[in-house]
Structure formats: C-alpha cells, structure tokens
Amino acid sequence: MTSPEQNRGVTRPDLAGVPAYKPGRTPENVSKELGVPHAIKLASNEMPFGPLPGVTEAVVEAVTRLHRYPDMFAVALRAKIAARHGLTQDHVLTGCGSVALCEILALATATHGDEIIFGWRSFEAYPIITTRTGADPIRVPLTSDNRLDVNGMLAAVTPRTRLIFVCTPNNPTGTSITRDELEHLLSEVPDNVLIVLDEAYREFSTDPDTVDGLDYIDRPNVAVVRTFSKAWGLAGARIGYAMASSQLIEAAGKVLTPFSSTLPAQAAAVAALDAEEEMRRRVNIITSERERVHETLTAYLPVPASQANFVWLPLGDRTTEFGHNCERQGIIVRAFDGEGVRVTIGTPHENDAFLKVAEKLL
Ligand SMILES: *Cc1c(COP(=O)(O)O)cnc(C)c1O
Q1: 137, 145, 168, 191: which has the highest count of C-beta atoms within 10 A?
Q2: What does residue 359 show for φ and ψ, rounded to 5 degrees?
Q3: 316 CA to centre of ligand 1 in angstroms
C-alpha cells in the first residue's frame, strides 16, 4: 500500500476534496455481519422482480460474441430509443449508466474556475462529478417541504455558472418539479448555462404536473438524462442515455469514453425496450405499493409524496439509529446521517417486512 505521504504530488491535489461514492450495502454483507438469514435490500432503488422477459436470452446471445468490440455508436439501441421518443438518432447518446452521461455533460461544459449548481440534498454523484471536472459545486438547499428550490437555484447563478443539475423526481426526497417551475427556470437562466434534467425515475411518476424533459430538448441548453437501471430493471448492465440537441450530443460524445456501452448492455437494453408493456405492469405494482407505504408512514412522520420508487423519511437526528435498527432486523435502507432515510419500494412482501419493522421503531 502506498501511504498518502508517498503519493504526494503524483495525483491531482484537488482529488483530496472529492468525496467517494457510497454504494448501498449488499444483502450478503449485511446477512453475514449481523447473522440474519435473508437481508432485504431496499437501499439502491433497484427493481425487485428480476430482468424483464427476453433480456436474459438477449444477453446470453450477446455473450457468444464477447471477443468482438460492441458497436461504438450503439446504433440499434439509439435508433430504438429515438423512435420511442419521436426523435432522430443524432439526438440520443448512450453510456455506461446515466451517471456517465451526467458526467460527460459536465465535462463538456465546465472546467476549473467554473461552477455547477444542484439542489441539496440530491443525487450524491453530482458533487463527485463536479469536482472531477475541476469546477466548484454550489449546493442549493431544498425547500422546507423537501422540494428543489428553483428560485434559490436561479439566485445562485453567477457568470461562472456552466451547468445546473435538476433531479426530478429528486433522489432522495422523491419530489418532482412542475412545468411552471421548469419554465420559470428556463426563462430566467442565461442561455449559456446548460440545464441537465436528470429523469432517472421519470417512469414512476404518476403526477400529471411532473415535467417531461422531452418537451424541452429543442432548446440548445437543455439535456435530458434517463436510465435503464431503475424502471427497466438493468442496474447491473450499466446503461443509460441522454437526449438533447444534435450539437450538444456531438460535443458530449467527444468526452465519452469509447465503447463504454458494452455489448451485453446494448443487447439487454434493446430487449428491455421490447418488453415495455411488462415494464409498465411492474412499475404500476411499485407505484401502488409506494402509495400504500407512504400512507402507512405518514401516520408517524411527514413523508413527502413521492413520484419515484422510494420514499423519504425526514428523521433528522434519529436517522442513523433508525438505519442501524432496520439493518439489525434484516432490512437494508439508505441512511443519510442527520438528514433522513431513503427506502426503496420493493415487492409487497418486502414492503410489509419493512413496515412491520418501521412501525415498531417510529
Ligand atoms: C440511480 C440514478 C441515476 C443513474 O444511475 P445509472 O445506474 O448510472 O444509470 C442517475 N440519476 C439519479 C438521480 C439516480 O438516482
């Protein structure tokens, strides 16, 4: 092992300030550590039902060609995504998870001395991505009702601002911004500031007022980022996509790592898109479970209405203890110390198990 002393000077000095991404703990680790038989993981906003029909077969077929490079331009997949959204392919870019697309949009717009704005708390990749570009992260606190503060974001804009991440529905609070709020943001923000609408959970939104980023991508400073990791059930495949003007897509493509959409991931995503009806059916199970879990928990604390596949428990000082106690009962949730706990909606049986534990602890 190299000590930090020995490493001095080799790596960028500003990396010391880059926070490390913390993944959700795995059921295997928690089961082993705590000696509980089958831990239930409600910590990473995954779908609980297994891959969509046809996906496994498509991946197995793709694996027989693993000695070949994938299609670098993911033409079959991009064509399918484009057709589904009424676009042409030059408006679509795929990458290694939508987190990679957030990153290349940041790399394509911001560098040292610039600023990137996002709500806080929001997706924990934003400060990491921002610092990687060399830009300064500007965190705008959420409103008291756990929503993005669009006016606060506008007030934070300076001549150095290059990009604003708008996570809607917001991870981890589940709240979404309205069309009016987005239009206000777009009308006030300078033309040279890119708005990245991170719609990782768009498919779970049942509120007719939730923004559909697609309505805005004819603007040169708007990009929409979506993923196959959540509703489409492909978190392990690592594939997501961005939709924007062809100019923006071309610029972002220049900073994308070549071949970063793997052959199995492309095949999995194409097959998943063919199973859209089943995806919708599964999403409906999750959203009706979400309402049930929300309703049960609101008897104990003010849980914001969620448009995603998780709920936010604003537990403040009780957060860490609640998280530990859930784990001790074999339920892995995501605790943000001192702030709150994010709980992914699982199968009805998993949600029952969580509610049983939560009702005792709350
Ligand atoms: C999960 C998530 C993503 C994407 O994840 P990938 O697996 O990298 O596609 C992006 N944004 C938000 C807000 C998320 O919660």
Answers
A1: 168
A2: -65, -25
A3: 24
